[in-house]
Amino acid sequence: MQTPTPIIAANWKMFKTIDQAITFVVQLQGELGPVHDREVVIAPPFTALQAMRQIMNVPGFRLAGQNCHWEEQGAFTGEISPLMLRDAGCDYAIAGHSERRHVFGETDEETGKKVQALFRHGIVPILCVGETLEEREGGKTFDVITRQITAATEGLPPEASAKLVLAYEPVWAIGTGKTATPDQAQEVHRFIRDKCASLFDKDVAKGLRLLYGGSVKPDNVDALMAREDIDGMLVGGASLEVPSFKRIIQFHTGEK
Ligand code: 13P
Predict the structure, then answer these.
(1) N or C: which end of the chain has fewer CB within 10 A?
(2) Ranges of the chain with pLDDT below 70
(3) 97, 110, 131, 189: the active-site residue
């Protein structure tokens, strides 16, 4: 089986105006040139999606939403639907980010409904999973990951599960400067792949792209990307400046 194309994804969270977003992408594309062997995914604030759509339309670049509701439309003040994300040019959307779960109280069940709804609208979910520090120290990491993946993928048709992107983002590593070591990340990624093999199918699991997120920086990306079950990065803080995000996109690992 072919090794999956790596994804380097930027989650800009609640940062950047439309002008700042455009300036960033124009500069990044100018410095990078064509990107062929990896996908660069950017999840800007919703307000910048439409404007970015025009300039992201080059090979190797993809647009993502940071979140969505599971309904197509309705009386849900302040929400955005998968249909609207698709309409704005998104190929991907983040589902179940830890800030959604822990700051806004999103449940496993709601995350699952978002995953299903995104697939219905032709958007590939980037499903985030990860344990808190307390859960890790209590030896619960694998139980938490199992619960999050099982709940979010229940009832997914096989053709959908084969496209799913998963991101392991340990909550204790997000925005803290404390990255999981390559060994810690690899251990959980292997567990996720094995879990997907039992939930979906062995061959499907081999082809899935499993991203790591949590204080990814230019100086740790190569060691993380070198590990067997790590197929990409989901980057917060270090994706906000062109030089650091560009260096992360240009990771090099040698042969895996
Ligand atoms: P940081 O890279 O800032 O730790 O954020 C990670 C993250 O939450 C990406 O979704």
Answers:
(1) N
(2) 1-2, 255-256
(3) 97
